[in-house]
Amino acid sequence: MGKVEGGMKCVKYLLFVFNFIFWLMGSFVLAVGLWLRFDPETVSLLNGDKAPDTFFIGVYILIGAGSLVMLVGFFGCCGAVRESQCLLGSFFACLLIIFGAEVAAGVFGFLNKDKIVEDVQNFYTTTYNENNNSTMIISYQKVLNCCGTAANPCPDPQPDTKDCETGIKEFFNSKLYIIGYVGIGIAGVMIIGMIFSMVLCCAIRNSREVI
Question: Dihedral of the CA atoms 64, 29, 200, 188 (nearest 10)?
Answer without folding.
Answer: 100
